[in-house]
Specification:
This protein is α+β, with helices and mostly antiparallel strands. The protein has two domains: about 160 residues, 3-Layer(aba) Sandwich (Beta-lactamase), CATH 3.40.710.10; about 90 residues. Helix content is about 40%, strand content about 15%. It is built from seven helices and seven strands. The protein has a five-stranded antiparallel beta sheet, with helices on one face. Strands 1-2 form a two-stranded antiparallel sheet. The relative contact order is 0.09.
């Protein structure tokens, strides 16, 4: 395992139409990239002439007797538990996402790990999807998998020959998923003999109220453009509100998260709707004001 992840390359698979691009220079920044794992799976396919999913089945699952382990898209998808996506505090049943060759998340990157933040704190060393952390002198290896409809946490404590798996058929990227990681944290600490209380139910409700208040504020901000007089705002204010702010809410979020728009919608639908609605109203009210010569 690498002691430090020093660079990330956003490589484009041959099956994608997007251009290849090196995002970060060595030793400058780290960000998890699905494309790297997708590329590795294609290298395996090219070298062996066998599909990646079949390789996993023949080389790993079958020898270990993992009869219920398989790759999405190989005829066993019906065995996967119904997934759910969190929307405004409610979990909505959602059909399985397409993880095909043209998808941002593919088979090889189907369990994503976005950063070293998570169970046992923000410090750790990252390598090939695993995070190495130390607690009370004991080595612990953790993997957190996040897709829109499912969340998993897998922890290994080699010195004790203990493995811990937490699986949840739901995804709620802003509220519930972090709490699932907190729950995994408490389970790991309990196994190691520490007293650690699991997350309280009211924590989720409180966070949901705060998030809902933020959504309401953004919606009100988006609608305010219909009621603000252009002369009072001035040209600079007009451009800032009707052009720069909606671009920041949409394009800025896309680049800051490093997530395609279609996947932002899948991971956080309520957030996507709120930001899109507000940005659209800011732009629309600006167009109407300009057309009517109010500015």
């Amino acid at each position: 395992m690498k002691s430090k992840a020093s660079y990330t390359v956003f490589l484009t698979p041959a099956r994608s139409s997007r251009g290849s691009q090196l995002r970060f220079l060595k030793d400058r920044q780290f960000r998890y990239a699905n494309e790297n794992y997708n590329l590795l799976s294609q290298i395996i396919e090219a070298a062996t002439g066998v599909p990646y999913g079949q390789q996993l089945s023949e080389q790993i699952f079958a020898p270990l007797g993992l009869e219920h382990s398989f790759v999405v898209g190989q005829g066993r998808d019906a065995e996967i538990n119904q997934g759910h996506v969190g929307v405004l505090g409610h979990f909505v049943p959602t059909r399985l996402t397409n993880y095909g060759p043209s998808s941002w998340i593919q088979t090889a990157s189907g369990a994503t790990c976005s950063s070293i933040d998570g169970p046992l704190g923000p410090e750790g060393d990252y390598g090939f999807g695993w995070i190495h952390k130390t607690l009370d002198g004991e080595d612990i290896f953790v993997h957190v998998g996040k897709v829109p409809t499912h969340t998993t946490v897998f922890a290994l404590i080699p010195e004790r020959s203990i493995g811990i798996t937490l699986t949840v058929n739901a995804g709620d990227f802003l509220i519930a998923t972090p709490l699932i990681e907190d729950l995994a944290d408490s389970i790991i600490r309990q196994v190691l003999g520490e007293h650690c209380d699991p997350p309280k139910p009211h924590v989720r409700e409180f966070r949901q109220i705060v998030l809902g208040g933020g959504y309401l504020g953004i919606v009100c901000l988006g609608l305010a453009g219909w009621f603000i007089r252009g002369k009072k705002a001035g040209k600079a204010g007009f451009l800032a509100y009707h052009v720069l702010l909606p671009l920041t809410l949409t394009v800025g979020l896309r680049h800051a998260s490093g997530t395609p728009y279609s996947w932002l919608w899948k991971f956080a639908p309520a957030t996507s709707i709120t930001l899109g609605f507000s940005a659209a109203n800011m732009i629309a009210s600006g167009i109407c004001k300009a057309a009517h010569g109010r500015q």
